[in-house]
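User:
Care to share a sequence and C-alpha cells?

Assistant:
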Amino acid sequence: MTKVTAEKAFYISVSDHYFRLTTEGVRLLSNKHRSYYSLPMVIDERAERASDLVNSYEAEDMRNHLRIISSEGKVEIDFSILETSASTIEAAALSLGEALGQKVLLADAVSLILFDLIVERNATEVLTKLGLSASEAENYRVSLKKKDANVIPLRPKRP
C-alpha cells in the first residue's frame, strides 16, 4: 500500500535577495546531508523551527532581515510542501507577526526559517553570495545572532 502525503502548493514573487537565500538554503542542507535537496525539502525539514524563532531572535533583528531580504519582488517561485509543514509555518507566522508588530505572511516566515538555517550553519560568508553590497552585508551581519537564552537580566530593559 502506498501512503499518499497531502501537499499544499504556493506561488510567490520574491526579491533577488530572497531567491538567492532560497538557493543558499538548498546548498547548505545538501552539503550538510551530502544529498541533493530541493526548496520544498528544505522547508519541510526546517518547518518545525518556525515556532521557535520568536524565542531565538530579537524582534528587531528579524524585522531587519525582512527589510533587507524582501519577500516581494519579480522572481517567481512555485513549490509544494507538506500540508503539515504549511500549517506549522502559517501558525508560526501569526505569532511572529505579533512579536514583530507587523503582518508576517507565509513567504516572510519561510524567509525567517532560511535566516535561521544560515545562522545555525554559521555561514555568514553566504552574504556576498546573496548579492548583497558590502554595506548591506555589514548591516545584515549584525542581525545574524541568536538570543542568549541562558542570560537572565537582573533589571528589566528600559524602553
Q: What stands out?
A: The beta strands are 7-14, 75-82. Residues 16-33 form the longest helix (18 residues). Residues 63 and 100 are 7 Å apart (CA to CA). Helices lie at 16-33, 39-46, 53-56, 59-68, 83-100, 106-120, 126-129, 134-141.
